[in-house]
Structure formats: C-alpha cells, structure tokens
Design goal:
The complex is a heterodimer of chains A (about 350) and B (about 325). Chain A has about 350 residues and is of the alpha/beta class. Chain A is built from twelve helices and twelve strands. In chain A, a hairpin with a 2-residue loop joins strand 4 and strand 5. Chain B has about 325 residues and is of the alpha/beta class. Chain B is built from nine helices and twelve strands. In chain B, helix 6 links the parallel strand 7 and strand 8. In chain B, helix 5 packs parallel to helix 6. Chain B starts with a strand and ends in a 12-residue tail after the last strand. Classes of the chains: A alpha/beta (about 350), B alpha/beta (about 325).
Chain lengths: ~350, ~325
C-alpha cells in the first residue's frame, strides 16, 4: 500500500452570506498518495477551487469557512490547526500555484527576490544564499540565462516564463504536495505543453504529489493517476484515470467527454450537449444535483441524492445507476425501481 | 474579383506605432498583421488559429473596418471597404457583425436585454417600437432564449445565455458576414457545445459566412471549412480543414496540433515541444519568423523569408521545407 499523503474526508466548505450559508462543496472525500497526481475536474462553480483553498486554509481569508469534515495531511488534521500553525505548512510543505501567472507575482520586485523571499522565510537562509538558490530554482524550471532573468521584473517576462517563476517559488521549499489550480488555462497550447512537461519531470525529480485542478479532460488525461469529477459542489465520479476514460460512469462525466469536439472523426455534425445550465449554489436542485440535466433521470433521482456507489474496484460514481451490486452486476438505469412520491 | 468570394484581402498590413521619449516620436512598429492575402467564400466558415499575440484578432478588426489597414485592400462583395465613408459605410456595417469573446464585458449591464438586441435595429432600420419588439422576440427564440425574459438585465443570465444574447444582437440586421472572435472560448465545455451547435444552425438557416477566430483547435476543426494558421502576423499555412489536421505541412502547424492534450490516457504522446516563446512582433526574427523555434530549420530559413505559395488542392504554405515534401515536389 502506498503511503497516504493527504486524506480529505467529508469536507463541507462554504461561505456565510446575508441570506444564509452557501455550501460550495459538500461531503468531498479525496485521498492522495505520495508521488501521485490527482486531478480535480469540473466546470466553473463546481467547487474545485474552494476545495483547494480549504486544504490551504486560505478559505478563511476569502470569507468562507470549513463547516465539516477533516483534511489529514501526513495523518494530522489541518482543520484543527490555528492560522499561525498553518503558516509553517503553507508554502513549506504544501505549495500552491494559480491560474494567472501575471497577477500571482508582485510587479515591483524582481523575480529572483520573490523566489528568495520564500526561501528566506521557510528555510531560514541568509539573503545571499537565498539569492543563489533562487537562480538555481530558475535553472531547474528551465529558464534560460537564469542569472540575468533573476534580476528582471515580471513584466519583462512572457506569460509562460512567469508561470515557470511561479512554479519555482512554489517548489523552492521542496513541498510534499503541490496544488496547481488551473496552471495552464491562461497559456497557449504550445506553452501549456511545455509547462505540463515541466511539472511531470519535476515531480519525478522531487517525488512530490500534485493535486491539479482543471476543467480540461485532455489535461487530466495527460497528468492524472486518479481523477475526481466535481459537479455543483460534490464529487460525482472518482477513479483511476484509465478507468474513467475507458468507462466514464456518471452521466455528467460521459457528457463532458462527449461534448468536446475531437481532433479525429466527423466534423460539422451536431455536437452532443448537456442540456440546461450549471445550477447556482443557492438554488441547487433536490435529489441528485445533476438530475435536471441528466438524460437518464428517474423518479428516485429527483427525490434522493445518490451516495457514491462502486462501479468496479476503486472506481466510484454517485449515481443511482450503480445501486446494489454496482455496475458489474448489470444494473442499468432502466432497471432501477421507480420510487413513487 | 471571384464572385464566389464574399471577402478578399490583398496584401493587408496593420502596423501599430511604438511611441517613446519626450517628443513622443515613433521609435518602432508592431507588425500585428503583416502582408496577408486571403479570400473567404460565400457561406463558408473560415477558421483562423494561432497563439496569443499572433495578430488574429487584429486581422478580424481590420476586416470589419474597425481598424484601418496600414496598407492593402479589403474587398467585401467587390467594394473596397476602406474607401467607404458616410452613408455607404453605414450600409456596409449592417452586413458585417462581430461576436465577442467575453459574454460579461460585451453587454452593457445597464441595458435591458431587449434594448441590447434591439439597438442595432434602432440604429439602422426605420422600425416602430412595436416592430422592434416583435423582431427581438423572434431573435431570442431563434437563438434559444426565453423571450419572456427580454425585460431583464444581462446579470440575470448565465455565461452561455449571455453569449446567445450577443449572437442575437449580431444577427439582428440579417448580416451576410460575422466575425466570431473567440466566441466560445470563455464558456464551460457543457455550454460551449450548445453555442457551437447554435452557430452551425444559424449558418445553415441564414446562409451566414463566418470568420471564426479561436485558439481552441478542436473547436475550429469542428466548425470550419478551411483553416488559416497565423504566426507573428503572417499566415503560415492555409488549407481545407480535413487536410490541415490530417497532414500539416508547416512545422508550426504540426507542433500546434501535437501540443493539444487529448482526452485519452492510453494514447502515446508524440509531442513536438517548441522551445522558447513567441518572439515580439515589434522585432520579428529575420528570414522565416518561425526559424528560431523550428525543429527543422536550416541555414536558408534564417536569411530568406518564405512566401505563402500554392501547393494545389487549395493548400498554401509558407515554408522552404514543408513536411512530407516528397509528395509535393
């Protein structure tokens, strides 16, 4: 059994508003092994970023709170820690990179100083040594002429370079876990390919785990060992990357994969669509949250939210289709008994 | 002018001056669009792809006469749009419309939806308020919006619905030609496919011609009849969609295609990872603009600039050593 690095159990996090508590995630459970890459996939408003902010306990600063559940990092519950204690972990043991590299960097400091800052803070090094290590970090993330680049400001670097700098800052303290929130969404495809390659090779070199948040199933297919698909605040399907792509089991996952036009096959035909829109968090439907958009929705889906059923092995889906012995036993949506109101 | 062509660009350039210093002198030029010749046929969708900063949006704006070209001709239906003024230009504007990327920024938050969609009608047509209202209802139904919600503000609509409002506004005047500038890029995948289907339906029903500008190559492949690939202000390859994706000739096109992440973890990666970044269009490299990043560059590439040349079957490429050169001769 591989060593568990992070175990999130039944995490419910949300925001306190004038009109009551809005739960952005509900009963989210994810675990990440050492050296593993887990991708959290979902559309906007699915709660994937809130989950990552909760792990970092940064949600407290965004007007939100962890309402229930535990986040165990190396066996220790992060939700029980004070913010002062979190400072020791955040940036040091768990680092995070964000979507927009330009706004994650401070425009008035050189990139070298920004990397050195994190090294001085967490690894108690002197200024001179930290600066030298910063140059080494820039070299590690593949920036040419790192000595010169270290003395430049973010505006002198391209978007792809800035994202490399952000990665250098995140990795400067050799974290055990890197949370990457849509790290390549703002970048062009050719630069995205560079950054994904970089993350993969750095992971091999440093042996860290990655929790990657993305809306792109293509990126998830390239990076992930395991995938968790989120919809409207809950995990609807979870399993190994190969299982999920070979056999997408939740109707939402299936719809996501089918609605993206491919690079092979027919063109110009009508694309598969998931009807309707993503519900707002304050007006979530009763029962299964996906049922108003689901082509297979039955009576029971309108009434009761499905728990996570086993599809096969460690592949789970929160859909009534897999009630009973699970998908292998031959349950189909048609065979689910209708529940009368 | 070929009568099958709705739009013809000849040697179009758009340079933006760089000013600097106390006297605000022009110290350089950003060559956003540099010598582009292409034609778009009636009823087709022409896809324009390229990375950010390659000039694809600038080209779209030059076509619509929102930017005046520095040099070159833009012929729409046989008339040079840049020579038009006053009434004639107004009449032309009815025929060409644009759909923007950002469904939040492109709609005035203080306008009711019926006023957003009705605005072009008020500007261009002599219609009574009642006629405008009837037309707005018709347009909203055409793009799949609930017309009873026309008395609401855009903030009450989701991203996908707002993009439909933008589309309804664009087709309000029955234009012949629409520039869709990253029209689906900001949308979530489950909503994106709905809007793509809508655009294709409108094209069939209204006989529209599209210039579809996007960086999402899979979407461009799905919707376009022909595709042009831009790099640093130039078209480097132009071909019918099927051929371009199956058999790219320019090394840049090949690299671009190989960089797209595929939703299939079992697929072997044969990726061409380009080194470095796109150079600045203010100071493009000598010779072929792609040569510093090209995996197949030879000595000639850094000196001689390759011209966009015809290779038969409607394919054009600007490369001295196109891939699969044997079959081209």
């Amino acid at each position: 059994m591989a060593e568990k690095l992070l175990e999130i159990e039944n995490l419910t996090a949300g925001f306190l508003t004038m009109s009551g508590t809005v739960k952005a995630t509900e009963q989210v459970s994810i675990s990440i092994d050492k050296g593993q890459t887990v991708c959290l996939v979902g559309e906007s408003g699915s709660g994937k970023s809130v989950t990552s902010l909760a792990i970092m306990r940064l949600i407290d600063y965004s007007g939100g709170a962890i309402l229930d559940g535990s986040i165990k990092f190396r066996g220790e519950d992060l939700t029980k820690r004070s913010q002062a204690e979190m400072i020791q972990t955040r940036g040091n043991k768990i680092a995070m990179i964000f979507q927009d590299p330009m706004s994650s960097l401070n425009p008035v400091f050189t990139v070298g100083d920004q990397i050195a800052e994190s090294i001085m803070l967490h690894r108690k090094k002197g200024k001179k040594e930290a600066r030298k290590m910063a140059v080494d970090m820039l070299r590690l993330v593949g920036i040419p002429a790192p000595e010169i680049r270290a003395k430049q400001y973010p505006h002198e670097l391209s978007g792809g370079m800035c994202q490399r700098v952000v990665i250098a800052i995140a990795l400067a303290c050799e974290p055990d876990l890197l949370i990457a929130d849509e790290p390549t969404t703002a970048l062009d495809v050719t630069v995205q390919a560079q950054i994904l390659d970089l993350l993969r090779s750095l992971q091999k070199e440093l042996g860290m785990s990655i929790l990657m948040i993305t809306h792109d199933m293509g990126v998830a297919a390239e990076m992930a060992d395991r995938i968790a698909v989120m919809y409207a605040g809950i995990i609807v399907e979870e399993g190994s990357a190969s299982d999920i792509f070979a056999r997408p089991s939740h109707p939402y996952t299936e719809g996501l994969l089918k609605s993206v036009p491919g690079l092979e096959g027919a063109r110009g035909e009508e694309l598969f669509t998931i009807k309707g829109n993503i519900p707002g968090l304050s007006q979530l439907p009763e029962g299964c949250r996906f049922h108003p958009r689901c082509p297979h929705a039955k009576e029971i889906c309108r009434e009761k939210a499905p728990p996570a059923f086993t599809v096969k092995g460690d592949h789970h889906a929160a859909c009534w289709m897999y009630m009973g012995d699970g998908g292998e036993a031959g349950w189909t949506i048609e065979s689910i008994p209708e529940v009368s109101r | 002018m070929n009568t099958d062509n709705l739009l013809e660009l000849r040697g179009v350039k758009k340079y933006f001056p760089i000013r600097s210093g106390l006297l605000n002198r022009v110290v350089g030029q950003v060559k956003a669009v540099d010598d582009i010749t292409l034609s778009i046929r009636k009823g087709e969708t022409f896809g324009l792809v390229g990375e950010s900063g390659c000039g694809k949006s600038t080209l779209g704006r030059v076509v619509l006469n929102l930017h005046k070209a520095t040099e070159g001709e833009v012929n729409f239906n046989g008339t040079d749009v840049q020579k038009l003024t006053g009434q004639e230009l107004r009449r032309l504007r009815k025929e060409m419309q644009i759909i923007f990327q950002d469904p939040f920024g492109s709609l005035n938050p203080r306008f009711l939806v019926k006023d957003i969609i009705g605005e072009p009608l008020r500007l261009h047509e002599r219609m009574t308020e009642r006629e405008i209202d009837i037309r707005v209802v018709e347009l909203m139904e055409l793009v799949g919006l609930d017309a009873t919600r026309r008395n609401r503000y855009p903030n009450e609509f989701s991203g996908g619905q707002r993009q439909r409002i933008g589309i309804a506004r664009a087709i309000a005047l029955n234009p012949q030609f629409i520039v869709a500038d990253e029209a689906v890029s900001a949308l979530d995948v489950s909503v994106q496919s709905q809007v793509i289907n809508l655009l294709m339906k409108l094209q069939r029903e209204l006989g529209l011609t599209f210039l579809f500008i996007a960086h999402g190559l899979n979407v461009v492949r799905h919707i376009s009849d022909r595709v042009g690939v831009m790099y640093l202000g130039k078209i480097v390859e132009l071909a019918p969609t099927e051929e371009l994706f199956a058999r790219p000739l320019h090394p840049y096109t090949a690299a671009l295609l190989s960089a797209i992440p595929r939703p299939d973890p079992t697929r072997k990666r044969e990726r061409i990872v380009l080194q470095g970044d796109v150079p600045s269009p203010a100071n493009p490299p000598s010779g072929c603009r792609f040569h510093p990043r090209c995996p197949a560059a030879k000595a000639k590439c850094s000196v001689d600039e390759p011209k966009l040349r015809e290779l038969g079957d409607g394919r054009q490429v600007a490369c001295h050593f196109p891939l699969e050169a044997g079959s081209i001769g």
